[in-house]
Specification:
elongated, Alpha-Beta Plaits, 9 helices, Aminopeptidase, alpha/beta, about 400 residues
Length: about 400
């Protein structure tokens, strides 16, 4: 990696920081839900047009830019930023508070989009200083099945030209601003949704002998399902099964004829993941039937686990250490949350890393998916600079074997 190019990127990130903090605030004030990012998509298209970066639209709202440096055939690197928001009412008292009722950028996708736009401007300014092609992936629908990543892959985003690797960042409020974190191998879990309906003859609560008690059956099932993980899975193989919703009954003296349960299953091993689906189905069906009721069960298969390529992640971490200093680069903890970046990472070598956005001194430490989530906006300068650096080098020159 050229020290001159690194310094040029750092200087431009600093120079453009205020402009892109403004862009982040605009995006934050105008959030849109998954697969409905119509105005966000138009905004991105206009920014790329202003930079004379060619693009195409895929999966309705996805925007795919193509930025060429010197010797564009040398390598193709993909950079991804997601852009959808969540159905949360914002409670922050800030000038850029959401103007769309009930919708909020509570997971930092406004930051991700901004950092990718910032990286695009930096790389465009320096396009005579780096080699290869950078594919800019502005992705819809990360927060909702089937995941915008899967839709874009089906639409050919990893072809014509085909990137040899892909990078993405994600805000981390538990990491102080000024820092980045990386992890090779397993990073985040797969996520499947469980929907169960238990049906039986209801009746008077004072005459349970004339019913099949759906409340009791559901209670037994919730407890029994916990043995799926605790007694079938290797304890050293991370996995979680949680029932998160119990809907049934409406008064004190009626046993309802129907109870609905919902939950989530997480894993970091694809073989165990689908074996567990079968175990869940078998246990639930047999238990409910044995207690005199019927069952409708659906497992909505979601994202696979995020797999960071070990070599690429090690190289990206070295690049970050050279850019920010070793003290500002940490190891990302293993997390059971899910991310549809996983779809890319199972197709080509990927590196999904964390951007520090917290600032305890300023009281900025609230987690994502909450109505008071916010970031220290100094993270924008670091995020856009790091994405530009990875795009310009593919982290290849920092790999153990060299380029």
């Amino acid at each position: 990696m050229s020290e001159l190019l690194q310094q040029q990127i750092k200087n431009l990130a600093k120079q453009y920081a205020d402009e892109f903090i403004g862009i982040r605030q605009y995006l934050h004030a105008h959030p849109e839900l998954s697969y409905r990012e119509f105005e966000t998509s138009k905004f991105i298209q206009q920014k790329l047009t202003d930079l004379n970066i060619p693009f195409e639209v895929k999966a309705t709202t996805g925007v795919i830019g193509l930025l060429k440096g010197k010797n564009p055939e040398k390598r193709v690197v993909a950079l991804r930023g997601d852009m959808d928001a969540l159905p949360i009412t914002e409670e922050n008292d800030v000038p850029y508070k959401s103007t769309n009722p009930g919708i909020m950028h509570a997971c930092g996708h406004d930051v991700h989009t901004t950092c990718l736009l910032g990286a695009a401007k930096i790389l465009n300014t320096l396009k005579d200083e780096w080699e290869g092609t950078v594919k800019l992936i502005f992705q819809p629908g990360e927060e909702k099945n089937p995941g915008g990543a899967s839709l874009l892959i089906n639409a050919g985003v990893l072809q014509n030209p085909a990137p040899e690797n892909i990078f993405a960042l994600h805000v981390h409020p538990g990491l102080e601003v000024g820092k980045l974190s990386f992890r090779g191998g397993m990073v985040m879990a797969s996520a499947d949704e469980i929907y169960i309906t238990i049906k039986a003859k209801g009746g008077h609560a004072a005459a349970p002998q004339n019913t099949a008690d759906t409340i009791l059956i559901a209670a037994h099932l919730i407890v029994a399902l916990q043995q799926i993980v605790s007694r079938n899975n290797d304890p050293f193989n991370p996995s979680v099964l949680s029932i998160t919703s119990f809907q049934g009954g409406y008064t004190t003296n009626v046993i309802p004829s129907e109870v609905k349960l919902m939950g989530t299953f997480r894993a970091m091993d694809e073989t165990w993941r689908f074996k567990a689906h079968g175990l869940i189905t078998k246990l639930a069906t047999e238990l409910v039937h044995s207690m005199g009721a019927e069952i409708d069960l659906k497992i909505d298969v979601g994202y696979p686990f995020v797999l960071n390529n070990e070599k690429l992640s090690a190289a990206a971490r070295k690049t970050a250490e050279a850019y920010l200093g070793t003290a500002n680069v940490e190891e990302t903890e293993l997390r059971m949350g899910a991310e549809d970046f996983a779809y890319y990472s199972h197709q080509i070598p990927g590196c999904f890393f964390r951007l520090g956005v917290g600032n305890k001194a300023k009281g900025i430490s609230i987690g994502v998916h909450t109505p008071t989530f916010n970031v220290d906006e100094n993270c924008i300068e670091i995020g856009m600079g790091m994405m530009a650096l990875l795009g310009s080098t593919g982290a290849i020159s920092q790999s153990p074997e060299g380029e």
